[in-house]
Design brief:
hydrolase; DNA polymerase, domain 1; metal ion binding; binds magnesium ion; binds 2-phosphoglycolic acid; metal-binding; Phosphoglycolate phosphatase; alpha/beta; 2 domains; six-stranded parallel β-sheet; globular
């Protein structure tokens, strides 16, 4: 499907701009060690990223995507994870191939840019700075900026309002079904990257308007937009 030319592009963080799994997995595994529990490893953690820090910790404790651990275990685990991730965040996280070129193109072509992530703000801003990409975004909406996270449309609508763009002229670029659902509910167009984290499922099944293999391919997509 071809896109209508947007005025604003909002980019998801984990799995879209940044491969953050090595640092997240190291932090989860340190937390598990402190709790006397077995490590989870990068492969499982990759399938658990995308719904914020609290849900990641719940997934590590239960081994399930949507199960709730006992409250007491969660209350012990969350501060341990936060301590570890404050330490590890950005250490081994890297931009995915094509991100630097893609952001440069988008800025050069005059698109208003924002970052909308479910990652908590205390981790989002240092990570964007560590990777040298904080300067691209006119707005950053983190997982705890508002009471709602993606797949709720509120973070996307908040960014659109702040940047003065109508939802119909906005494009969300993400890696997971939560990005697609949030974009649909907000009345945005949505493109997804094929390389990110989507709980191990092919993102095409979430039916975004387009799938790209690198952010550099956004150029082709946007230049073809009507
Ligand atoms: O789950 C997280 O903490 C971050 O996820 P997102 O950047 O893909 O929204
Ligand atoms: Mg993501």
């Amino acid at each position: 499907m071809s896109l209508k030319r947007p005025q604003m592009v909002l980019l998801d963080l984990d799995g879209t701009l940044v491969d953050s799994v090595p640092d997240l997995a190291a932090s989860v595994d340190w937390m598990m060690g402190e709790l006397g529990l077995p490590a989870c490893g990068e492969t499982r953690v990759r399938d658990w990223v995308g719904n914020g820090v609290e849900r990641l910790v719940m997934r590590a404790l239960t081994g399930e995507l949507w199960a709730d651990p006992p409250e007491e275990a969660f209350a012990r685990a969350l501060p341990l994870f936060r301590t570890a991730y404050t330490e590890h965040n950005g250490r081994h996280s890297r931009l995915f191939p094509g991100v630097a070129g893609g952001l440069e193109y988008l800025r050069g072509a005059g698109y208003r840019l924002g970052c909308v992530t479910n990652k908590a703000e205390a981790f989002t801003l240092p990570l964007l700075r560590a990777l040298g990409i904080d300067g691209y975004f006119g707005i950053v909406v983190s997982g705890d900026t508002l009471p709602q996270k993606k797949p709720d449309p509120a973070p996307l609508l908040h960014a659109a309002e702040r940047l003065g763009v109508a939802p119909a002229r906005a494009l969300m670029v993400g890696d997971s079904e939560h990005d697609v659902k949030a974009a649909r509910a907000a009345g945005f167009q949505v493109a997804c990257v094929s390389y990110g984290y989507n709980h191990g499922r092919d993102i095409a099944t979430a039916q975004p308007d387009a799938v790209v293999d690198s952010l550099e391919q956004l150029r082709t997509l946007l230049e073809a937009a009507a």
